[in-house]
Predict the structure of adenosine deaminase.
Amino acid sequence: MALYADLHRHLGGSVVPRILWRYFKRHNQEMAQRFPKYPAFEEFYTRKRNTLDEYLELHTLVESVQTEQTLPYFIYRLIRGAYIFENLAYLELRYTPYLRTPEHLSQNQRIDEMAKIVQIVGKASQVHEYPIIISQILCMHSRLPYEVNKAIVELAANMGDYVCAIDVAGGDSHYGDRLDEFISLYQYARSLGLKTTGHLYETPQGCYPALLPYLMRIGHGIQIPLKYPELLPEIARSNQCLEVCPTTYLKTGTLEDLSELKVVFDRCFDAGVDIAICTDNAGLHNVRLPFEYENLLTQDVIDFKQLQACQDAAFRHAFAWPHKERPASLLTDLLKDNSPEKMLLSV
């Protein structure tokens, strides 16, 4: 029974460790020799890193094998797990298409190849045996040149059948020197009618208020309630939703303990700011969305009423969810329509 929505999951970090290890065993001799036994690979792949930058280096490991040929393999297994083990009805999958193109090509050739990658991801996401609504968010990247990032925005605008929004990723501490550039790209995106989110206020070094007006959702954003709660009323008025990914902050060293998120949730709820609970990199963490929920509940970060509010917010702020209600409400109405009393009345 699919009931949940995940608004923030990276394609690069979505591959669970055992599937990635099996792929390496079959196709990558160097990695197979380095990790002949699975437990050692799982420990390496999922262990805590000291900084966000160190953590993001793991994405390059997966990006290098997510090619035109292999993407359907990884996406099928991603969707199968999301449907069977996570009860997902809706998933927004984000990634930088340029980083899935062949490195030996020129920049212009790689830009031209990006549309093919988006199409492959889109078609591979249509798995009829696992009926999940999946849409793509294309990520600009802090370490890519302006020309590539602009091409990513234009690609998103031209492939609306597959793409629901744009993002900027690559570590929020790296935006500062190019802030005007990213503002102009977001302005351009909004002028093209694109929906927007962005990795922002994830770390204390990634707080750029000048970018906030251009975002419809805020990727992470936890430093706002933690360090800049005076911004919360305007975020509430702007109907911006925070995409909070609990396990990420432990894995990157941003937070020491999950209990620190209680301030984030409490201040956001008090200010009327919506939060969607997300996984970010479910494979890197080996933690699926229901376990994110459970961890927050069992550690008294949120209560059940707050959890339901976050689940409702996820569907309400979803960029491509086609219904007015979340699946649980639709299912309740369906069950009411097929209740024994109504069936007897119809006889």
